[in-house]
Amino acid sequence: MTVRHMNDTDIAALETRTASVPPTLLASAQVPAPQRPRLLSLEACQDIAQRLARAAEGGGYTVTNIYSTWTGNIRWARNQITTSGEVRNDYVKVIRNLNGAINGWTLINDTSDAALIAVARRAERMARLEPEHAQSDLIGQLANEPVQEFNLFFDATYQLDADKRAEAAVTLARKAAKAGMLSAGYIEISAQAIALIDTFGKTRYFPYTSARFGVTVRTPDGTGSGWAGVDWADWSRIDTEKLTQIALDKCLGSRNPVRVEPGRYTTILDPQAVCDLTAPMMQWSGLWIRTANGSGSPLYQKVGKEIIDRRLSISADPGDPELGFPPFNPLLGTNVFMGDWFWYNAYPPVTWVKEGIFQQFGWDRGDTVNGEFKDTHLEQAGGFRISVTGATSSIDEMIATTARGLLVTRFDRIVELDPDSLLQQGYTRDGVWLVENGKISKAVKNLQFTMSPFFVLNNVEQIGVPQRAFHPKRDDGLMFLPEPVIVPALKVRDFSFTALSDAI
Amino acid sequence: MIADRLSSWTRRAWLVRHTHMAAVLAAAIPFRHVRAVTYRNAGVPYHEPEIAKRLARQASLADPGPLQAMVLRTLDAARAAGARYADARLTRTVGHEYKWQSGAHQFSAETEVQGIGVRALVDGYWGFAASAVYDADTVVRLAQDAVAQAKTNAAISRAGLDNSNSNAAGLVRVVELAPTPAVTGSWATPVAIDPFSVPVEEKLDSIASWDRLAQHYRFSFPPIFASSLVFVREESVLGTTEGTLVTQTLYQTGGGATLRLQGSNQQTLTKLGMAGRGWELVLDAKIPEQIEALAAVPPRQPEKAKRAQVGRYTLVCDGATMAALLDATLGPTTQLDRALGFEANATGTSYLNDPLAMVGTFQAASSLVTVAANRSAPTQLATVKWDAEGVVPEDVTLVKNGVLVDYQTTREQASWLAPYYQKTGKPIRSHGYAGAESALVTPLQMSPNLALASSTGTTRLEDLIANVPDGLLITGGSVTTDFQSRTGMLRMPAGAMREIKNGRVGKVLLGGAVQFDSPDLWKNVTALGSAGTTAVMGHATTGFMYGGIGGQGTVKGEPAQSTPYTVQAPAALIQGQAVIDSTKTGQ
Fold first, then answer.
1. How far apart are the C-alpha atoms of A358 and A310, rounded to whole Å?
2. Nearest to B198 by CA among B430, B442, B29
3. 77-106 of A, contacting B, C-beta below 8 A
4. What local confidence, expressed as pLDDT, does residue A174 receive?
5. In whole numbers, what is the pLDDT of chain A averaged over residues?
6. Which of A377, A409, B5, B379 pairs with B289 at a CA distance of 20 to 30 A?
7. Environment class of residue B301 by beta-carbon count within 10 Å: exposed (0-12), middle (13-18) or buried (19+)?
8. Does residue B41 carry a pLDDT above 50?
């Protein structure tokens, strides 16, 4: 597999292949000013780190964390383009350590000399607030673990320019318009480079692209609504026409829903619904990042034991060509309460659950696991895959074998009620159907559910083929960290719906 | 003097070492704000090279000339490229956050984020381009990019629609901006003390002193103390091709302090909240006095609690709970773009979903309920002089005596309600509720400050309770809803739901939550507290620092953005609401 390092030459080559402004439209404009590169090369990141190091005063060391982004987007509603945009931004997060503890950072998005000098002074002033700390140079001793090398940068994404985005938006909107429906959608593509460079000589740099697409089709009178979407690093893997057709079909099929009584139902969950249920569990419960003994976790003393259906495994591998996310944690200082600002940790391939058996907890640097001292973290990176052992069924087959149940394609507004049982509450959205005697009999109104994803994963009847769902990124004000999710459709027993919702 | 007592446990004497800063403080603030300060690093020379000083001067709106020139250059380039209308906004946002926990400094973040964004309108379509860098070449390029996008969007849309004249929307939408007068000037959130004029050392020393004061009571009253301070200043220059050129400096200050008593429930000592104020917010909170007052209270005996019983109840909700309900329901549902489906693919639509049919007639709440929006209330977070489009915001009644009478709008959206405004003799103009998280995102209609009107009498929370023979008291509730803000759940922290029997507050009830239907809930409001019961809740936006914070109404759009605003509401009596077992998973 090709490894893309994105040096200056690579970036220059990309830029010449990409004309961000269609030349014909510039006839009346001034001569275009020279364009800045869309993202920083490895050399450009090293240059910033070196200029910061030169600006440093008072000894100690410097850690520079760079997040370079270019994004383009287009949005439409009521079948017409509403807004579009292109944004170029480079965040530089700086830590200066002057022989103290590290409890913070400074962040700027101006890479001029003056700004870098000023930020070095601010970072040093912040550093002086800390008491002396004997282990302040531990970072120098941290292993520079090797990270997986693979390509996550795709030209099809990088070169989806404003005109191509507009073409796509109009084509998709027209599809809904022709059916007399209203569509609202969003395409966002981005190219990023993340870099982590310190004055001990460690350098990490990873360029990648991401693309997301989602579309909602509604009836003009608001009595039906359908949605479809997906995200990939490579735009060419997103079949927008097919997804729009799915959203349209769901909209048409969801019209004039009837009420069903809340209660426990055999429920067929589309992969998107499985993603919506399980991704929060992988993210916020802390399940996968609690330290070695896991006390306080719902999985305390469960290593080696069966925690979910034996046909399911949960794993994460950044280099998985169907998954794909940066192979190391690029963040500095996001975890307020860890007091540990340098992660540097590579994301190795991890299997958390193998054929239903819980394999391991994550660990923090400094933990002892099975008698072995760990100088890295092992944590859930965000992206994950639920894979299947044994036979799979299509959603149609699941429907055909259901005497009475519900088909759910999407959940929304999920909140965690109880961190110990991982009990969650949320709503269905954009289409729920009643299945009777092996057939979809009617559209039903949205429902509120209260459910633990563990309960769901332990009450599985049938399993579909795992596929990419829509889970584009960590919701972070600064960054576009992809969190890809691959999960199967599931047919589960006794899914608990607790209330009706009249929202359509 | 509190300062005298504090001096025994702060690290250094309370001395004003820095005479220059003392003079600035003395000049800038009323006498009561002048307090002694300590600088932990007073002995360490703080070396600031000339270049950094120059940078600070250049970027400050103390001299907005260069930044205004950059905005005007951007607009010129957009005009030259063919924009019928363009606006450019340049923002520079400084955010500082400090956290302290369990006797140690936990976290500091200092953020300076800048950028310029240009929005161009050509043939009824928008284009937008933005960059963190705003040098003379870049801004020209951005303007050309924005115009090119707008032209592309217009050209491709027209070509596409020629082949499909069956658009269910009926009409080709062309952006029409409601007229607004061109304005010039500058404005800043009125703060007594710019929090960025207070050195970081003093800020941290303040937190440290609270912590040490709390530690002082360790033996009788073991506390776990956590506190945080957040300061944000957004400087912006906005220009439009219609001649508007304004500069604004907006402040957010806030944070909180929590004293957790071991072996009992966490007790929030004080929430500073978030407000459009300066360092004086922190001083006025008088946290040392609060700590001492709390220390004087004997430890609370664990209360006997019982399980909440499922059923329909009369609720007495405190102001904070009502503010949370308003924020999650009538706030977002009266956003016109949500109501018309423009947010359908993002955070959702609205149950007030047929604006022209509903506005002026739809009974959205009981006749006691009046909800107003503003961007003018002093110290509230959405308060500005001009919105993101240079419009002077109006104070607007959204729900009057229970009837939906208006929606939240921008210049573009005002024209969508033209038939209603014409019928009722109102001018077609923006309410001035456009906002943008920064220059790097395109403006949308964002939440203004929201206020549920209180009753005119002297009704206290106790008076509301006194009239309830059998009901529940809910304090500090939080709310989640579906994507139309319709079906929702009101939850509360442990200990915040109590039974009311014969007009008196009884036992704590555990495990309950209120399942509501928004129109039904608001129609069952049968009494409101007076102004004295009003709670004010500020939603900050520190999302640009590390992820979003805020209520459901905060996040909007694709890409998602949030802007700060404040919600206020008095206590209320609500009839016939369903209490459920919050953790029960179905029959």
1. 11
2. B29
3. 77-91, 103-106
4. 92
5. 86
6. B379
7. exposed
8. no
- Residue A407 DSSP SS3: strand
A418 vs B contacts (CB less than 8 Å): 583
Which H helix or E strand runs over B472?
strand B470-474
Question: Which residues fall within 8 angstroms of residue B585, CB to CB, at 6 or more apart?
Answer: A423, A450, A451, A452, A455, A496, A498
Interchain pair A80, B172: CB under 8 A = yes
Cβ(A404)–Cβ(A266) under 8 Å? yes
**Count of alpha carbons within 13 angstroms of residue B306, beta-carbon side:** 6
Mutation choice for A interface testing from B75, B108, B134, B152 by most A CBs within 10 A: B152
Residue from B402, B426, B403 nearest B414 by CA:
B426
Q: Say how many Å lie between the first and final Cα of chain A, rounded.
A: 46
| Amino acid making up residue A93 | K
Beta strands in B56-197 (DSSP E): 85-101, 104-122, 125-131, 184-188
Please list the alpha-helical segments (H only) found in A258-405. 271-283, 395-400
State yes or no: cis peptide before B559, omega within 30 of 0: yes
How large is the average pLDDT for residues B555-575? 92
Secondary structure in 3-state letters for A107-147: EECCCCHHHHHHHHHHHHHHHHCCCECCCCCHHHHCCCCCC
Whether residues B168 and A504 touch (CB distance < 8 A) is answered with no
Cα gap A75→A186, rounded to integer Å: 5
Q: Is the dihedral of CA B457, B460, B466, B471 positive or negative?
A: positive
With contacts defined as CB-CB under 8 Å, which chain B residues touch A25? 147-148, 151-152
User: Which residues are CB-contacts of A370 (< 8 A; sequence separation ≥ 6)?
Assistant: none
Q: What is the pLDDT of residues A355-364, one digit of tens each?
A: 999 998 887 7
**H-type alpha helices, B262-318:** 280-284, 287-296
Has residue A30 got a pLDDT over 90?
no
Nearest to A108 by CA among B496, B75, B55, B566: B55
Q: How far apart are CA A273 and CA A282, in angstroms?
A: 15
- To which H or E segment does residue B22 belong? helix B19-28
φ and ψ of A238, to 5 deg: -95, 115
Which residues, in sequence order, are bridge partners of residue A90?
A68
- List pLDDT tens digits, range B116-163: 999 999 999 999 999 999 999 999 999 999 999 999 999 998 887 655
The tens digit of pLDDT for each residue in B281-295 reads 999 988 888 878 777
How far is Cα A236 from Cα A140, in angstroms, rounded to an integer? 42
Q: What is the pTM of this model?
A: 0.90
- CB count, 10 Å around CB of B34? 14
How much is the pLDDT for A11? Answer: 73
Residue B181: both structure tokens together: 């007068």
Type of residue numbered B342? F
* Residue B82, phi then psi, degrees to nearest 5: 115, 15
Of residues B157, B345, B584, nearest to A184 (C-beta): B345
Q: How far apart are alpha carbons B440 and A89 in whole angstroms?
A: 9
One-letter amino acid at A69 equals T
Q: Is the CB of residue B442 less than 8 Å away from at least one CB of chain A?
A: yes
Total beta-carbon pairs less than 8 A apart between chain A and chain B: 335
Host H or E run for residue B235: strand B223-240
Task: Identify any residues that bridge with B24 across adjacent strands, giving them in sequence order.
Answer: none
